[in-house]
Amino acid sequence: MGKKILFWLIFLGALIGVAFLFSEDSGNSPLKVLDPDNASYLIEETEIDFADGFFEGPVAPDSAIAERWQISKKSEGDLNGDTKNDWAVILYGNTGGTGTFYYLTALVDGGGNIPAVFLGDRISISSLAVEGRIIRLVYEDRNEGEPLATEPTVEKKLLYKFENGKLVLAE
Predict the structure, then answer these.
(1) Which tens digit of pLDDT belongs to each residue from 76-91?
(2) Model pTM above 0.85
């Protein structure tokens, strides 16, 4: 008899524990994991929803011209010092013309929709890394005044940090 009561107490305790873990009202919901492949990004004041690392849609309502955006590179690390993983993300897109535009943005836990920073047109991204709370970006661009048809060969190294809800150059 005592074993039956013990069994039912353990069973009910486990059932209540599982219900508590998965209850949305408990305040203890499983942590939301940031997923850069399936997130919304703010590019030039327009929110773009990515699915599986990609977005395609009309450049304007009722337009037959499509814009396409993809993720070029991404790097995980803690950008705001809360010990939770965030993401630095390079997006590139074509809005119907000949250009391929590159932007740096971030997904920061609790940071909202962070405005993307324009990097350039038809550049070549070499590396992206989050080190400490700093984003290290290396890419190739052209000399000022060179035609966009020229292959980018001028190396640029930039450091960014997340500050007051946006990405800013770090010194």
Answers:
(1) 999 999 999 999 999 9
(2) no
